[in-house]
Specification:
By secondary structure, this protein is mostly helical. It has two domains: about 15-130, Winged helix-like DNA-binding domain superfamily/Winged helix DNA-binding domain (Arc Repressor Mutant, subunit A); about 175-205, no CATH class. The protein has ten helices and three strands. The chain has a three-stranded antiparallel sheet. A hairpin with a 2-residue loop joins β2 (about 90-95) and β3 (about 100-105). The longest helix is centred in the C-terminal third of the chain and has 29 residues, at about 135-165. The chain is globular and about 55 Å long.
């Protein structure tokens, strides 16, 4: 496999802050924050809500399952988003006559107007972001992105298979850290410092009009 053939040339002493996975997470966070700000300003909706509308626009009538698949949301989260959009009068949920246990989603007129705006705003966002690259760089980036996405899904599937698909164990509590001999420094890092508490109290005093010098 290419993954194993190329792994030997990858540096093993790279600082954690320089690792590509963290760089991609920073990039994703910046783009998500930007999208949330843009769509909230333009439409009064969060990025995740706008994505649902855009997916329904491109595939209506569509199902909740298809929405989940397209934007990779778990069913519970997607269901809550759809319920909010239905309550806002932007989506309609109709029973599937062929399967009473299922429903399909369609846009209302108001939802369609916003979804069209979301699509145009999304295109503008991508043009602005991709303007950092020339045509050759853009083609190379998209090709590399497709390969790395496929690779990430491969190693995820492998990890799910080896771990039985279970969730990660919960983080230890401060009491558990102390019991395991993690040392006073580890436990202390979980406690808010006194100086931070004093600063917080000073700010609260100012807000309440009773600030002390």
């Amino acid at each position: 496999m290419p993954r194993k053939a190329n792994a030997a040339s990858y540096p093993t002493d790279m600082p954690f802050s320089d690792m590509p996975t963290l760089a991609v997470e920073r990039l994703a966070n910046a783009l998500s924050r930007h999208g949330d700000l843009v769509y909230m300003r333009l439409f009064g909706l969060h990025l995740s809500e706008c994505r649902v509308l855009a997916i329904v626009l491109s595939r209506e009538p569509t199902s909740l399952g298809e929405v989940c698949e397209q934007i990779e949301l778990d069913k519970g989260h997607a269901s809550r988003l759809v319920t909010r959009l239905v309550s806002a009068g932007l989506l309609e949920r109709h029973a599937d006559t062929a399967d009473q246990r299922s429903a399909y989603l369609v846009l209302t007129p108001a939802g369609r107007e916003i979804a069209l705006g979301v699509r145009a705003a999304g295109a503008a966002r991508n043009r602005e972001w991709m303007a950092a690259l020339n045509d050759r760089e853009r083609a190379g980036f998209m090709a590399a992105l497709a390969k790395m996405t496929a690779q990430a899904r491969t190693i995820l599937a492998e990890e799910l298979q080896s771990s039985g698909g279970g969730a990660a164990p919960p983080l230890p509590t401060a009491r558990e850290l102390g019991a395991k001999g993690a040392g006073p420094k580890s436990a202390k890092s979980l406690v808010v410092e006194r100086g931070a508490l004093e600063e917080l109290r000073r700010q609260l005093d100012q807000l309440l009009g009773g600030a002390r010098p």
